[in-house]
Specification:
Number of helices: 6
CATH class: Alpha Beta
Structural class: alpha/beta
CATH superfamily: NAD(P)-binding Rossmann-like Domain
Strand content: 15-25%
Strand order of the largest sheet: 2-1-3-4-5-8-9
Shape: globular
Number of strands: 9
Largest sheet: 7 strands, mixed
CATH architecture: 3-Layer(aba) Sandwich
Length: 191
């Protein structure tokens, strides 16, 4: 059993909390009103919009040292939905890792919609959560949280792959916003 803290009580945070609970893990959810409450989990999932990462780092950097920190953000321009706001050779996860050098940063959940996390399926296949990171133990810990809830965890490689995951998340979001794919769908992986 893993202790999981989720910073962000919105729809993604709630869906991920339900998954972790389904897998038998202890879950702490911290919303905006909980800014002074300590993070208790060994795995900390940042279920917030990209701009909020800077605020969390500023307030909780020391507290996140030594923990598995999961970035689920898609750093896109939400006004235009036409570009990512990080440099082409970087990613939100890489920026987060640089700001939290004593944490084990992992990129995951940014290519999933709430509906596919909740249902556990995409097009009749188990929902696949793509996981990228440089620490094998951190990826394994998060992958166990995912698989214990009945979803599929797929090792997407090192944290350098986060930029491709963010591009994929960007594409999926723009397709859904343009009503070319439903919010209940997503990309599925064959076994």
């Amino acid at each position: 059993m893993t202790a999981v803290s989720i910073i962000g009580a919105g729809s993604m945070g709630s869906a991920i909390a339900a998954l972790a609970e389904k897998g038998g893990h202890t879950v702490q959810v911290l919303g905006r009103a909980d800014a002074d409450q300590a993070v208790t989990g060994d795995v900390v999932i940042l279920a917030v919009p990209y701009p909020a990462l800077h605020e969390i780092v500023g307030a909780r950097a020391a507290e996140l040292a030594g923990k598995v920190v999961v970035d689920i953000t898609n750093p896109l321009d939400f006004e235009t939905f036409d570009t990512l706001v990080v440099p082409a050779d970087s990613s939100a996860a890489s920026e987060l890792a640089a700001a939290l050098p004593d944490a084990h940063v992992v990129k995951a959940f940014n290519t999933n919609f709430v509906a596919t996390l909740t249902s556990g399926t995409v097009g009749g296949r188990p929902t696949a959560v793509l996981v990228a990171g440089d620490d094998a133990n951190a990826k394994a810990t998060l992958s166990e949280v995912v698989t214990s809830a009945g979803l599929r965890a797929v090792d997407a490689g090192s944290l350098r792959r986060a930029r491709e995951l963010e591009a994929l998340g960007f594409l999926q979001l723009t397709l859904a916003v343009g009503e070319k794919t439903p919010w209940t769908g997503g990309f599925a992986l064959e076994a």
